[in-house]
Amino acid sequence: MKATAFILMIITIVSKILGFFKGILLAYFFGTGKVADAFNFSLQIPTIIFAFIASGISTGFIPIYKKLEKEEGSLIANRFTSNLGNISIVLGIIFLVFSEIFAGAVTKIYKFTPATYNLAVNFLRITLISIVATSLSTVYRGYLNAKGEFIVPALQVFILNIFIIIAIILGAKINIYLLPIGLCIGTIVQYIPYIPAVKRTDFKWTAKIDLKDENIRRMIYLALPVIFGVSINSIGNLIDQGLATYYLSDGGLSIMYYGSQLSELVNAVVIGAVSTVAYTTLSENAAEGKISKFKNSILSSLNSMNILIYPAIVGLIIYAAPIVNVVFNRGEWKPEATPLTILTLQFYSLGLIGIAFMNIFSKAFFSLRDTRTPTINSLLTLIIDLVLSVMAANIIGLPGLALGTSLGSIIGAGMLIIRLRKKIGKFNGTKEFIIENLKMIVASLIMGAISYYIYNLLVGRIASILSLIIAIVVAVVVYFLLIYIFKVEELENILGGFKNKINNILKK
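Given the sequence above, the corresponding C-alpha cells read:
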C-alpha cells in the first residue's frame, strides 16, 4: 500500500507542479483582476457543486462492489457498475440543465462588480458543460480503485493542467473566452485514459438502466449521508469564497485561490494519495471483520501522511513570504495583494493536519458503513468554521477566513477522533504512534530552523529564487537525515515497500 501511495504522490507532485505553474501564469497575465476572479470562479464552482454527488458515488460504490465481487462474482459486480454508470450519465445531464439555468443565481452569492459578474456567469456556463463527463468518470474511478488501479485516475489532473496552461496562454494572447473553453475541453479529455484502463479489466458494458436494482438502493443508502456531508463542505466553500468578495470585492476570490495553492498541493499529493489507497484497504478489512488490522491501517495511514505533512507545514509557514514574492509578484500582479496572499497561505497551511486526520477517520467510518457520524461531524465543523472565519476576518481581514477554516478543520478532526474511538475501541500502539509523530515534529522544527538560517545567509548575496531553492534542498536533506537518525519507523516502511515494488516489477 505504501509503495503505491508513494508512486501516486510522485504523479500528483508532477501534476500539481503543473497546476502551480498554471497559477503563476494566471497571476502573471491577469493578476487579481476581473478575468482572474471570473476564471477562478468558473474553475472552482463546478467542482464544488458536483463534489457532493461525486463523493457520494465513489464512497458508496467501493464497499458495495467489494461485497458483490466476493459473494456473487465479478460478472454481477460489473453489471452493477455498468448500471450505475448509465444512471450517472442521466443524472449528469439533468444536473447540467439545472446548473445552466441557475448559473446567474449562484454567481450572485458573490459580491462581484457588475463587469466581473457578467464575465463570471459566461465563464461558468461554458465550464459546466463538462459535468456529464465528470459524473460518468466518477463511477469508473471508483471501479478502477476497487480493482487496485490508482495510477491511471491520478494521471487525469496532469492532463487537465496541460489544457488549462494552454488555455491561459491563448486566452491572454487571443481571446479571454479561450480560458473557460480550454478548461471545459481539458476536463472532458482528462478521462480518456479511463477507457483502456477499464477495458484491461475485461469489464463488459451493458446498455441498461435498472433503478430497481437492490444494490443501487444500498449504495444510495450509504451515499446519501455522504452527499449531505460533502454538500455541507461544498456550501462552506461557497460561503468562504463569497465572504472573500465581501471583504475585498475585486481580487478577494483570487487572493484566496492563490493563497491556497501550495497547501492544496500538499493536500492532493500527500493526503489525497494516501487516503485513496487507504480506503480500499480499510474497506477490505472492515468487510472481513478484521478490526485489529483495521485499526492498524488507520494509524499506518496517518503516519504515512504525517511524515510529509509536518515538514510541509513548517516549510510553508517559514517560506510563505519569499514563495509568494518569487512566484506571483510579477506581470499584472498588484503589490498590495502580496501581504494578504502570504498570510492566507500561512493560515491555510495550519489546517493541513486537521484535514489529514479528518480524511482518514472519515474513510474509516465509511468503510464501516457508518456515513451518519462523519456527516453530523461535517455539519458541526461547518458551523464552527463559519463562526471562527467571520470572527477572525473581522479582526485581521481577508486572511482571517483561511485561519477560521484551518481552526475549524482541526477541531472537527478532534471531534471525529473521539467518535471513532467510541465506535471501535482503543487503538493498539497509540503510545508508539505518538512517539513516532513527536520525532517527526522535532525533526521538522530543526529542519525549519537550519534551512531558514541558510536562507538568511544567502538572500541578498545571490538571486532570491536561487536562495529559496538552495534553502528548500537543504531542508529536504536535513529532514530525511534527521528522521533516519531518529529511527522513524515509517521511513523504513516506505523505503522497504518501494524496494519490494521495484523487485516485483523486475521479476515480471
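The chain has two domains: 34-200+211-231, 251-508. Try to locate this feature in the C-alpha cell string yourself.
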